[in-house]
Amino acid sequence: MKRLTLVLGLAVLGLAGGAQASSFIGTTDAIGGSLVNSIEGTSDATSSIGNDKVVLDARDDAASFVASDGVTRGVQLEAALQHIREQLPELQATDMQLAEAILAL
To answer: Which domain of life is it from (predicted)?
Structure first.
């Protein structure tokens, strides 16, 4: 009887661990998919200005901005963000999304 209880207990723990792992994978897949979609949408919108010197010159600043989670804001990135918003006033994107799109150019 103790053996049966032990086996059932281990089985339940194994199932719970598997469910938790698949839940984590599902969550990370959903978040990753949302991020990719937002970046692709922003990238599509900014591709029309992808050959613009102001935007291309801001790639290093954009990399620093993304790497620092928005703390480091360079002058060239600020100019590029302003330029993009002037060229595409209908674009609804955060500074982080635009910086990521600049990096994707």
So the answer is: Bacteria
3-class DSSP assignment, residue 16: helix
- For residue 69, give the amino acid letter: D
* Maximum alpha-carbon separation in the chain: 76
Is the pTM above the cut of 0.85?
Answer: no
Q: Is residue 4 part of a domain?
A: no
Domain that holds residue 94: 16-104
Cα atoms in the 13 Å half-sphere on the side-chain side of 87:
15
What pLDDT, in 10s, does the model give residues 31-77? 555 445 545 555 555 456 777 889 999 999 999 999 999 999 999 99
- Tracing tokens 């600049």 back to the chain, one arrives at 102
